[in-house]
Amino acid sequence: MYGLHDVRAGKSFCCVSRQMRNRFWIGGKDDWLVTTDSVCDLKLLNPISGETISDGHFAIALFSDGLLLFTSKSLGVWKVLTNPTDFDGCYKYYPFVFLDAPVRKGRLIGVEQTGSIYSWNIDVPSDHPVKLESPNIPLIDESAEHVFYLGISPTDQLILICIHGHGEGFYNSSRRMLVSEHDRFGHVDGMSVHMLDEEDGTWHRIRALGHGQSLFLGLNYPFYGNWSRLKSESVCVANIMEIDVVMFSCGSGQLVGVQAYPVEEGDRLLDGHSMRTPIWFRPTVPLRGSSI
């Protein structure tokens, strides 16, 4: 059982799907959620129609031990990407842990937990990745942790989103079925958005996304949209500090709101069960059914 919340209409729907039994979602784009199980068997699920697809996908998997893989219908197997490593002087290599890795123009671009950015040629995954210039983000003394997302701007430029905070996180006990590497602090301090100028290879902080749109981040593939509740261009992140939705102003970088998924009936139905990690979902067909 899972819930769908329509942020535009302000209605919530309680859904039941046999296809989600013993599975959980790890990503999504448009009408489809990417689901997996304990043996990494990927399936696409349309949570409205209930339709599932077992192939026709391109997927990237990031693991907390630094392992990076991708697969596609044409490959039929998982391919391991070479991980850039730190050398500590004791003949031990520690792989970088990557937080996000979209594909753009035939290359996979990943940002690791300290903000360094690398690029791979997905046609030759065994090749060593190329390190790209990273934005100069001033460290904030009270912010012990920084997490990063990558996305594409409405003008087709690479952007990096940095969220910083402090306090205990990451190791908090959680009922979530999937622990996010982005859950690294207990309190949010702020957010900034940076855009890459591909001509000179430099990054610049931006304070507007364009066309009054907001950016929606999380386990899903990033997308832009309008939400009448938001008064200005915002960055809306699913599942930060175990809060369903956290909203930042793109202009000021400050926290402007939070929203919890209303589960009045779900509290009873989900008692004793793990909660799936919230994820943004952008259907192309309208939601139907009884709301709670």
> Structural class, from helix and strand content?
mainly beta
Based on CA atoms alone, the radius of gyration comes out at 19 Å
* Measured distance between first and last alpha carbons: 14 Å
Please summarize the sheet with the most strands: 5 strands, antiparallel
Mean pLDDT over the full residue set: 79
How would you describe the shape?
A: globular
> What share of the residues lie within helices?
under 10%
Strand segment count: 25
Low-confidence stretches: 265-273
Provide the β-strand percentage band: 35-45%
Number of helices: 1
Organism: Panicum virgatum (Blackwell switchgrass)
Domain KIB1-4 beta-propeller: 66-234
Protein name: KIB1-4 beta-propeller domain-containing protein
Pfam family, one: Beta-prop_KIB1-4
Please describe the topology of this protein.
Layout: E1 2-6, E2 11-15, E3 24-29, E4 32-36, E5 43-45, E6 52-53, E7 58-62, E8 68-72, E9 79-80, E10 85-87, E11 93-95, E12 98-100, E13 103-104, E14 107-112, E15 117-121, E16 130-132, E17 145-152, E18 158-166, E19 187-197, E20 202-206, E21 214-217, E22 223-225, E23 234-240, E24 243-249, E25 255-259, H1 264-269
Parallel strand pairs: 21-23
Antiparallel strand pairs: 1-2, 3-4, 4-5, 5-6, 7-8, 8-9, 10-11, 12-14, 13-14, 14-15, 15-16, 17-18, 18-19, 19-20, 21-22, 23-24, 24-25
